[in-house]
Amino acid sequence: MTAQLLATLKLRGARVAARKPVQSYAPDDINTDAARLAGASGEDVADICPAHRWYPLALAPPMAAHALGRGPVWMSEIISEVRWPADVDVGFVETAGGVRSPLACDGDSLELLRRLEVDQLLLVADAELGTINSVRLTLAAVGPIPTVVYLNRFDPNNELHELNRRWLIEQDKLTVITNVHALVVAIEDTAKPPGRHHSAARTPAPDCRAR
Ligand SMILES: C[C@H](N)[C@H](N)CCCCCC(=O)O
């Protein structure tokens, strides 16, 4: 979804950039998140996610790093590796998992958003049963960051999807978007260049003891 969003913004003339500070993925996944983002933004994939932050194992990144025998992942390091080109209108930071999913031994996606001073959250949620709970829990964790909720795989003919959408708008007073074109318009209306960024195991525990 982020890749489609980037590609559409770019087609409409915006200078876009994406960052994925760390990625983990199934070893047979040849189209990683960073590769998809690079295909959409036109950037070098290593600018999106440095090669040494690729962990080919479907676990949270610090767990994957440990299981692969790689060094520990630290928040300060992955944050210091996030650099933006000078001439960008909209920058996206893509996290991994949910906001409380570990990104590093000493921090999660929520901490990344805070430390990067993200000024807008694009919360991608499933349109299906359970979405209201997960949206509410996420927003409770995140606190007062302007947020757009995007309901992924929304089918307007699906009554549950439509009831979920209306509940989040009417009861929770959220901005809820269900198609990429409406999302593009919302982002174009509110985008600020990054600097203020925009956005978005069964193995042994990782060794996070020593730096
Ligand atoms: C491998 C997968 N696609 C993601 N990159 C990692 C998701 C980690 C979730 C961890 C958790 O919250 O328990």
Topology:
Layout: H1 2-11, E1 16-19, E2 23-24, H2 33-41, H3 45-48, E3 54-55, H4 61-67, H5 75-80, E4 90-93, E5 102-104, E6 107-108, H6 109-115, E7 121-126, H7 131-142, E8 147-152, H8 159-170, E9 175-177, H9 180-190
Parallel strand pairs: 1-4, 2-3, 7-8, 8-9
Antiparallel strand pairs: 5-6
Helix pairs in contact: 1-2, 1-9
The structure holds 7,8-diamino-nonanoic acid.
7,8-diamino-nonanoic acid is lined by residues 24-25, 58, 60, 96-98, 101.
Pfam family, one: AAA_26
Keywords: Biotin biosynthesis
Organism: Steroidobacter gossypii
Give an overview of the whole structure.
This protein is of the alpha/beta class. The chain has one domain (2-202): P-loop containing nucleotide triphosphate hydrolases (Rossmann fold). The chain has nine helices and nine strands. Strand 7, helix 7 (131-142) and strand 8 form a beta-alpha-beta unit. Helix 1 runs parallel beside helix 2 and helix 1 (2-11) packs across helix 9 (180-190). The structure holds 7,8-diamino-nonanoic acid (DNN). 7,8-diamino-nonanoic acid is lined by residues 24-25, 58, 60, 96-98, 101.
Give a brief description.
The protein has helices at residues 2-11, 33-41, 45-48, 61-67, 75-80, 109-115, 131-142, 159-170, 180-190, and strands spanning 16-19, 23-24, 54-55, 90-93, 102-104, 107-108, 121-126, 147-152, 175-177.
The class by helix and strand makeup works out as: alpha/beta
Return the domain count: 1
Ligand species: 7,8-diamino-nonanoic acid
Shape designation:
globular
Q: How many extended strands?
A: 9
The CATH topology, please?
Rossmann fold
SSE ordering: HEEHHEHHEEEHEHEHEH
% residues in beta strands:
15-25%
Average pLDDT reading: 91
* Rg estimate, integer Å: 17 Å
Protein name: Dethiobiotin synthase
Pfam families: AAA_26
InterPro entries: DTB_synth_BioD, P-loop_NTPase
Keywords: Biotin biosynthesis
